[in-house]
Amino acid sequence: MGKTLLQKVWDAHTVRRLSTGQTQLFIGLHLVHEVTSPQAFDALRARGWRVRYPQRTFATVDHIAPTDGAARPFADPLAEAMMRALERNCRDFGIPLWDLGDDRQGIVHVIGPELGLTQPGMTIACGDSHTSTHGAFGAVAFGIGTTQVRDVLASQSLALEPLKVRRIEVTGQLAPGVYAKDVILALIERLGVKGGVEYAYEYAGDTVARMSMDERMTMCNMSIEGGARVGYVNPDETTFEYLRGRPFAPAAADFDRAVTWWRAQASDPDAPYDDVVQIDAGALEPVVTWGTNPGQSVGVSGRMPMPAEVDAGERAAVEEALAFMGFEPGAAIAGTKIDVAFIGSCTNSRLSDLREAARIVRGRRLAPHVKGLVVPGSRAVRIAAEREGLDVAFLDAGFEWRGAGCSMCLGMNPDKLVGRQVSASSSNRNFRGRQGSPTGRTLLMSPAMVAAAAIAGEVVDVRRWAEAGRDDLSSTASSGPSGTGRLDEGGRA
Amino acid sequence: MSSSRITRVEGRGLPLAGHDIDTDRILPARFLKTVTFEGLEQHVFEDDRAGRPEEAPAHPFDDPRFGGARILIVNRNFGCGSSREHAPQALRRWGIEAVVGESFSEIFFGNALAIGLVCVKAAPSDVERLQDLVVHDPGARLAVVLDAMVVRAEGLDGEVIIDLPASARDAFVSGTWDATGMLLDDYAAVERTAASLPYVGGRWGSA
Ligand code: SF4
Fold this sequence. Notes:
The complex is a heterodimer. Chain A is α/β, with parallel strands linked by helices. Chain A has two domains: 5-275, Aconitase, domain 3; 287-468, Aconitase, domain 3 (2-Layer Sandwich), CATH 3.30.499. Chain A has helices at 5-13, 38-47, 77-93, 108-114, 146-155, 180-191, 206-210, 213-221, 237-243, 252-265, 312-325, 351-361, 379-387, 390-397, 447-456, 463-467, 470-478, and strands at residues 14-17, 23-26, 29-32, 57-60, 97-98, 123-126, 140-143, 157-160, 164-171, 199-204, 230-233, 275-280, 287-289, 297-299, 340-343, 371-374, 400-401, 422-425, 441-444. In chain A, the strands form five sheets. In chain A, strands 5-4-3-6-7 form a five-stranded parallel beta sheet. Chain A has a five-stranded parallel beta sheet with strand order 17-16-15-18-19, with helices on one face. In chain A, a hairpin with a 5-residue loop joins strand 1 (14-17) and strand 2 (23-26). Chain A is globular and about 55 Å long. In chain A, 60% of the residues are buried. The model of chain A is unreliable at 469-493 (pLDDT under 50). Chain B is α/β, with parallel strands linked by helices. Chain B has two domains: 2-174, Aconitase, domain 4; 177-207, no CATH class. Helices cover 31% and strands 14% of the residues of chain B. A seven-stranded mixed beta sheet of chain B has the order 4-3-2-1-5-6-7. The mean pLDDT of chain B is 93. Classes of the chains: A alpha/beta, B alpha/beta. Chains A and B meet through strand 1, helix 2, helix 3, helix 5 and strand 8 of A and helix 4, helix 6, helix 7 and helix 8 of B. The structure holds iron/sulfur cluster.
């Protein structure tokens, strides 16, 4: 019988079985950032340990990075202290650090793939739950806590329990205006935010096979929001072509040898799965969250739930979420007013995401009451986007164009919601307080949906805009008295 | 840090009802801006505690009846969301030594294990029974007993069966929950595994 990719990678990286019954697993790539590492480095110092594989360890700064200019010292002394600690730790332990002045800086899950560090068949760890992103390349990538960061620094390995594998077969053609983000949000809605606990998710099917690496990363990124610590896609030609020529990818003749090995890591056709789930992507519409966890979502033409109509076990949670959000049970999600539009985060801040969003905003204006923020995932994305003029499209529409970092994905840097503001966000978590205001509210959606909401000032169905040809869009754009070209209400049924 | 054996946790209970309590709620992100774990206990559930309407009952972490409790009793999918170890650290530093719940997020569970915070699962109806018991009698003494894999409590009808993966149980009972030492025990084996992987050191030619 064949093996899954997970099984092959697990076997190849098994150091030994521990007396606890866990597996000691070798970690092939360790990515480090400023938030979850300082205590781990201090523990190493306290015990006189060194970093065993500094050459397999790379650091960057993302969570605390101010995105509106990065003059040092940072205005926030706590952020400055964290930055200094990271600089000192990387210097003392011989780890390369790509900091704010470096063109390789960015969100850790954006730069790993971009630099070609992330490769098929690897084990990858990072002190961040969205490490699952790297699984898009057919790597087994874990989010870990600080004590485990210490374990990896000191021993290049982790003590882990085996995982089951759920194959998720996504089939059908995505409609224009429907994206990988919608697929993963719909999947989490269906399987629940803890449906993936103890599983690795293997994404397969013709829809995934057609997806770009950026789209696959969006899917794998949010595996953790469905409870799965690991999500992956079997490596294929799309993966190999993405990696060719990247700074840390094997070069010249090594590349072809690497492809042979990478290809062999993919799941065998007769591999056994612990569970199989099918999802028809062709039937999906854009998805928007209405609640306080990523599983609480609905298609854009849908309505908020009625607590009386949901399972008794879910009722209290639904009531609580609606009360926090201040939404009327049964109200349509479309038409929900927003205050802030955030395009960014490790889920959706790559060049293709920005292109899709720019396509929507080009020639239009932000709704007057909306603050719009576009935050590229990395310096490299920012530079590439500027080369294409995407910055101009956003700036002309009234968005702010920022430096790379986590920004408003979480409240650890100056970009925060204020009070009860409602944010349309391309990020991954709508937990209470996540975007920096304890009472702030987050609606998760695709970058194109965020762009459309920013223009309309409320949640709208981006498919109407996506279906229209470019000419249509620009004629809308040049209409209107002030030439602002706001999407008029007439566009909505 | 050599870890100590943990075979049982005894103390009073702290009931915290609700599903899917994420780590952003346990410890809001702004308190991650620190280079040590010290003092985090001051901010545990800070926004939930501060954001309560005047007329609402005290948050369990502010309710004097539960002061000094060691055993937190939670519902489903506790600790989901961000991987921040700051969350279990804050609970542990608050004085929580064990958490009994319907289920836990995996990363939270792993982080808790690594710092010696015992997280055990129990059936939803049993969790509810324990929460009820503690709400009605905050002084009741509870014991999470890893040898027998039960929770015992004063005033509880019978025992509550708990569930914990065998490896985690062994780690607590044998005092090996602090994994680093164990992982370094046979470092030559780590190097052998590394040498067998073509991408480590770029050995594609000989792969
Ligand atoms: S962008 Fe958001 S989810 Fe991603 S690493 Fe940064 S804070 Fe975490």
